[in-house]
Each structure stands twice: as structure tokens, then as C-alpha cells.
Protein 1
Amino acid sequence: MIRAIKGTKDILPADIPRWRYLEETVRRIFENFNYKEIRTPVFEETALFARSIGEETDIVSKEMYTFTDKGGTSITLKPEMTAGVVRAFIEHSLGAQQPLSKLYYISPMFRQERPQAGRLRQFHQFGAEALGSTSPLLDAEMIQMAYEVLSSLGLKDLSVKINSLGVPADRENYKKILREFLSDKKDMLSEDSRKRFDKNILRIFDSKVESDQELIKGAPLLIDYISEESKNDFEIVKEYLSKLSIPFELDPKLVRGLDYYTKTTFEIISGKVGAQSALLGGGRYDLLVEQLGGKPTPGVGFAAGMERILLACQNENSFTVDEPSIDIYIVRIDKELDLVVSEIASKLRKENIATDYDYLQRSVKAQMREANKMNAKFTLFVGGDEFKEGMINLKNMKTGEQQSISVENLTETIQSIIKN
Ligand code: AMP
């Protein structure tokens, strides 16, 4: 038997209402902030990700699904969305049409990570990117928008962590200072962190190994070495977040995995999803557009993991969705009325009334059980003497009330009943 690939998941009909609720919440809130949806291809040229995310990051060095297509081009399934959005932004000169582009997406992503709870190989993210302004107000608003989605879903156990990574010159300067601090401790670091020491030293802060955490405890912090401009912007972000009543904590060790971040970075963590606790992360990336060949354009954005958010919602029991239901279930009393029933169903469906009936020649009793199972709001009984007289019985499944309606103007009558 062929099974789904490890780290991928089927989203079955029973799961769909929760997914839809999440997607609708995202769309509603993002559109209130005037973000417009963008959809980019599932795969891109590998070079796009290597150049934007950074060769030394875990994503590019270990986790990408990369293959050569029949034309000999190296292709990668998107592991994140910012690179694709920025590519599209440049390719279609979106910046020339609008000084500030506010874009959002909902899309599957692909990373070859070790699967565990909250970590998949095909997962889904929603996120937003604003391209064209350096205003720190936009950073704060991005955090507000992300926070609003999570709190609208009823999540309570949330913490917002923020930091500033300064500009690249600050970071280069700081990396030297950190390297000096760690130079006599390098041999005691874990193997992964020793590799990071040479290639991407900031990432040592992300190490989950306890002895690594001990070693970097007293390390100098990037936030103390950022430029005046970065510091001022960061102050504005914090001030605005306070005005917006968004609780946040400063986390000077929040460095994030991707190379392209500048200045503000943030994460929102849930206390209810176990080890993989980051629900979303983002930050400013003022140099990325230029790095990918576009006109210098500042940007800020975030990406949120939908499976993890739904897991947190489930663990906090934060929202409930209505049971799936249909408007009308038609019970066929006389076997020979099959065609009549299908004709009635067809008419009702044309009027946007969700309708179903029995295709399995089941007894009246079994059909009624089915109506209950489908959570039908009304059941229509077609057949018997009543039908011979041109009437059909309609039963309100909630109240048990029944009424006889004429076949002639059946759809109109049902429509007005359903509306009330
Ligand atoms: P990142 O793009 O790495 O900053 O991730 C942003 C968010 O996407 C994370 O906070 C997670 O919620 C989610 N995410 C990242 N990788 C995975 C994965 N392999 N499986 C499930 N969710 C993920």
C-alpha cells in the first residue's frame, strides 16, 4: 500500500472547517489593514533562495527540496515565501505602481526537516510583506496584525519577543566581538555550534544544547552594539507597541535563522505547543530587494505556521466551529420517484440551497438517519398520497415542526422559509 510521504499530512474533510476558520480570520484581518493577496508559484529557481535566505542557513544548506528538471534547471520547492514575493515585486515593477506595496499570502511550504509534532515537511504559512517604507510604525503594525490574528482565534498563552539586529555593519562589528568572546570556549561548544562559529556565529544563540547556552550566557549582546538609527527606530517600535497595548518582551538573543533580516525582528511564542513553540516570526529586511536585483526598497514582514497555530488553538480549546450541515435532505418515500427527487434537488441547488438525497436505494428509515447524520436543517418527504395531490411535507429538524407545501412553487417557498 502506498502511504503519504513522511512529514506530509492529509487535511481531511473533518479538519477543513478549522482550516477555513483560520484562513477567513487571516483574510479578514489582513484586508482590514489593506493588504492585498499575492500567489506565487510553488517552485522557483534554486538560486533565488540561495541568494536571499543565505547559503549558510539551515534552510538552504540542509532543508530544501531541490531537483534538476528535464531542461537542466535547478528547481526548489519554496521553503518560505519572502523570496518569491520579492522576486515577483521586482519582476512586475510593483514598486513603480505603488510607493508602498502591502501583500499577503496563504500557501504550502516545503522543508526537509526531521518531522515531529508541529514540524512537517509540507506545512502551510500565512504571512505578509510590506515593501517601500522604512517607518518603524510599519514594524509595530506588522506585529499588531500578527498578534490580532492569534488573539482573534482566541489564543491566550502568547508571548511576543522582539529584538533589533541593527544594520549589516553593526552585525559585522558585533560578530567580531562575539567571536573574540567565544574563541577560548570554541572547543567546548557542540559540534553544530562549532560549525556555526565559523559560518554563521549569531546562530549559536539558537542552539538548544544546554552546555552551549551556559557558554554564551555572559556573551556581549548585539542590541548593545547597534547604530543610533537602529536604536531610535527600535525605541519607536516599542513605544508604538505599548500604545497599541500589545504585551512584548525584549529578547536580545532572538537572532532568527535567515540572513536577510535588518533592524526589528520578532517572534510570537505559544506556551501550549511543546518544543516547537514559535507560532510566527518576522522582521525587517531593508536590503533584500536590492540584493535580488531590484531598486533599493526597504521591507518588513512575517510568516506564521498554520499547523502549529491550529495545534495551539486545539490545545487551548480557543475556538469552536459549527458542525457541517446542509439545508435540505430529501427523503424519497416511493422508489419510483427517483427522478422526481433528483429534479427537485437540482432546482434547489440552482438556488444556492445546499441539498442532498439518497443514491443507495435505502429505506425511508435509513434515509432519515442519513438526514440526521448530515445535520440537515430541513427534511423534504417526497411521495405518498400527499405527493399525488401535489404537496410535499417539509420538516424543520430543529423544532420538529412540519408543514405541507405545494410542489408548484416549492423552491420559492423553501427559499423564504430558509431565510427566516
Ligand atoms: P520561519 O519561516 O522559519 O521563520 O518560520 C515561520 C513559522 O513557520 C514558524 O514559526 C512555524 O510556525 C512555521 N514553520 C516553520 N517550519 C515549519 C515546519 N517544518 N513545520 C511546521 N511549521 C513550520
Protein 2
Amino acid sequence: MSKKTALITGVTGQDGSYLTELLLSKGYEVHGILRRASTFNTSRIDGIRKDTIYGNPPNEGNPFFLHYGDLGDASNLARLIGRIQPDEIYNLAAQSHVRVSFDIPEYTTDITATGTIRLLEAIREVGIKPRFYQASSSEMYGLVQQIPQTETTPFYPRSPYGCAKVFSYWVTVNYRESYGLHASNGILFNHESPRRGESFVTRKITRGAAHIKLGLQDKLFLGNLDARRDWGYAKEYVDAMWRILQQPEPDDYVIATNETHTIRECLEVAFARVELDWKNHVEIDPRYYRPAEVDILIGDYSKAKRKLGWEPRTKFKELIELMVDADLKLIHDQLAGKVNRQD
Ligand code: NAP
Ligand code: F7E
């Protein structure tokens, strides 16, 4: 069988980097779309990028390619899809920060919602039928109508980000039904890792605990400590994305752990790992409150288990501890002048 080709939007993000590694390990040729930035934004994929030449033809057998592009730029997306002719497309790019989406709602809608239809229209324009994965989110459940949430729980988004993801969810279903595209949604609950962006709460906490332990910081400022989230390990969640696209029929799946924990519990585990009491170091800063909050998320992944054979392995405590350990190591490496790479 010939080598499969995958195109990943959001390749420089947490999930994009893990998915790239997974697909390369399965023998795929992987193409990633990279935003142009004035500073380096490839730290998560530097370990695999090696000698890849941006946008150029095959480079001595290296199966990983980066191309400049943006979900706001439709003609470029069509050109790339036409050139690459991917078998699978994973749409992971988004303005993905919920709090920030209240500050830049129009931009969030343009990228996180309209960006998806730009990509789907580019596929139609080029006239190929790749399998399409949409990075849908538990934020679509927002003010939850059911506990735990399943594939049939009604959506009630609570942020511009959540609203944008609901649009992308439905447009993915619509292109499946209208044009017979193998288009699927993974409804992923929060998933974290040492590569998680530093402004998301788990990473902010694990990084903060590590800095405080090493005497580099004294206080950690946070918002609502009572919110509950279903947190899993990103490395395992990208495997679910791949499994979704290997199914004979397109469909939508909840990917979660079926456990929920508060931000307070996250603080307890992280600070216990560095033998400190979080209450001595955490202060509440109302700037981190959201105009509307999502109070509780907990996902029932039984459909994914049944149909994809997928199950989460790394649970909450182990996950937070491995993130604290990775942050301690990262800081030590940075202090020692080693490369700033997030493993
Ligand atoms: P992330 O780390 O924030 O990565 C987002 C990626 O999108 C980055 O590569 C970013 O590029 C890229 N991007 C942002 N704006 C773009 C634009 N205008 N054009 C092209 N690329 C753009 O997010 P993640 O945690 O890996 O999540 C991946 C996807 O899953 C996102 O769609 C997110 O909304 C969704 N999701 C995440 C979770 C979660 O818990 N992590 C749960 C459910 C769904 P830069 O590196 O240049 O910023
Ligand atoms: O917030 C509370 C905050 O920003 C989690 C994205 O990947 O997952 C993520 O969205 C909770 C919220 O993630 C701070 O109010 C308290 O209740 O880590 P977060 P999120 O909003 O759940 C979903 C599934 C996605 O799809 C998104 O792309 O933590 N919280 N204090 C705080 N949150 C942040 N960020 N910073 C604080 O200081």
C-alpha cells in the first residue's frame, strides 16, 4: 500500500505536535500549515522538523513538510490542498483560548468558525475527497444540559469560542450529509500535557508550582477555582483523532476520561508534588474570571471505547504530576542554558 499523506492545520500547537509524531511513526507523509510570525513559533515541533525546507519538494526522504498558511486565507488553503492532495486532513487550528475569545470575538469567529468552512470549501474547489477531522470541543456543552455529556447532549455554548466551535461542528456534519465527505467531529474534553500553552490553567499551575519551588516566583494569580473539568492526556487524545478517521463511516465521538476535578484539586496535586501548600502562594485575580463560566464538564466516552477501541490511560493525578515534573526539568534545562524545547 502506498504511503498516506496527511495535512494538519495547527501543526505548531499542542495537539498538532503530538499528532505529527504519531502519524510519522505510522509511516505517513505529514504536511503542516504554519502561521508566519515575527518570532519562532515552532518550539513544539523543532525536535522533528530537522532539515525540512518550508514548502519545498521532498527533502532526501524526510516525510515532514511545513507550509506557510492561515485559516484566514482561503486561496492559499485551496492552493496547498491542490498541491498536497492529502488523504486525511486534521483541522486543529483555532484561536483556542476561551477567555481571550471574549476579548477578540470577531477574530475568534473568523478563524475558529469561518476558518473551517474555508477549509471545507477549499476541499470542494480542488475536487478531492480526503477524510476530514474537525477539532470539536466540550466547550460546546457550556451550560451543561446533562451529566455526563455524550454525543447526543444538546449544546449550550457560553463563550464566543464555544459558539464558533458549535458552528464548525455543524458545518462538518453538513458537508458530510451534503457532499458525502468522510467528515467527522472529535468532541474532545480538556486535554493537557507538558506542551500545553502556558496560559491554560493546568499548565499555569504546574509551571507556577515549579517556579515557586525553585524560588523563581512567589505568587500565582488565578481566577475561578471552583470550575470542574474533565482533564486527559493530549498524547493519548491524538490517537483517538487518528482512529476516528480510520473508521469506514464518518461519525462524531466524545473523547474524555469520565472524571471531573476542580481547579482547587489541581492546585492540591501540583503543589503537593513539590511539597508546598498552595494556599500560601495562590491569590485570586478577578481579571481571570470570565463573563460567563462553564461550571462543570464530564464526558462519557463509551461510544469511543465501543467503536474505536479507545480508552484514556493517564488519569488526573498522574497527568498533573507528570506536568509538574516536566516543568521542573524544563526550568533546570533553561537555567543550565540548554535548548528551550518542550517535551
Ligand atoms: P493550541 O495549542 O492553542 O494550538 C492552536 C494551533 O492553531 C496553533 O498551531 C496555532 O498557531 C494555530 N492557529 C491559530 N490561529 C491560526 C490561524 N489564523 N491560521 C492558522 N493556524 C492558526 O491548541 P490545542 O490545545 O493544540 O488544540 C487543538 C485544537 O483542538 C484547537 O482547535 C482547539 O480549539 C481544539 N480543542 C482543544 C482542546 C484542549 O483541551 N486542548 C479541547 C477541545 C478542542 P501558533 O502556534 O502560530 O499560535
Ligand atoms: O480554563 C478556570 C477557568 O483556560 C479551565 C481550551 O483548550 O479546553 C480549554 O478551555 C478553567 C476555567 O481551559 C484561571 O475559568 C481559573 O473554568 O485551562 P482553561 P478551558 O477554558 O476549559 C477546552 C475543552 C477547549 O476547547 C479550549 O480550546 O480554569 N481558571 N483561573 C483559569 N483559566 C485560565 N486559563 N487561567 C486562570 O488563571
